[in-house]
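Lab notes, practical 5.
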Amino acid sequence: MSRYETSLPPSYFDERYGRDPDPWRFATSDYERVKYGATLDALSRARYASALEVGSSIGVLTELLARRCDPLVSLDLTELALIQARERCKDLPHVRFERAQVPGQWPEGTFDLILLSEVVYYLDEPDVQRLAERVRSCLRPGGDVVLVHWTGETHYPLTGDEAAARFIANTAAFLRVHDQVRTDKYRLDVLVRDDGRPSCRPAGSSGSLGNPGL
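Output from the prediction step:
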């Protein structure tokens, strides 16, 4: 399949979830389970006062992330996934799901954590630039941005490495790279809003997550 040249439309995801309620095996894959653990380990704070998750899908990671956040806003662009996510997190009143096509649509409020897990490579380069501006407008001083992307070949507008590199380049004026982890299947990048405050993680600990063993 040839690579998409523009950001993937909602119809792409509607079709995938219409054929299979969990097309990427978020609920059953060992790869996803280990990656979720590494994502949570990468968070620099024990708890966040306000968090945003872009790309909730069926809410598997959302449910785990909710233990570290209050409140948590989670976005997805397909209602088929959100129906499952709301059911999965129905006992978590501090979690709110919204349907939104990022970066054109964006929630109100400010956040000290923004999680972009397996989403940036669905965007073309102009939309990555718009996403960077959205993040700039709502990330609190000292706040964290966590990127997670599969690094294999894709037919999306960007590969995982391209997506991370473009986002980091477009946010270099206000975010600094705090930590990076790479395995044979995915990369994880932790960025911090650089407002002159010391890093949340002790000096010399960059890369301390290591390889989660995939």
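Observations recorded by the TA: The radius of gyration is 16 Å. The mean pLDDT is 92.
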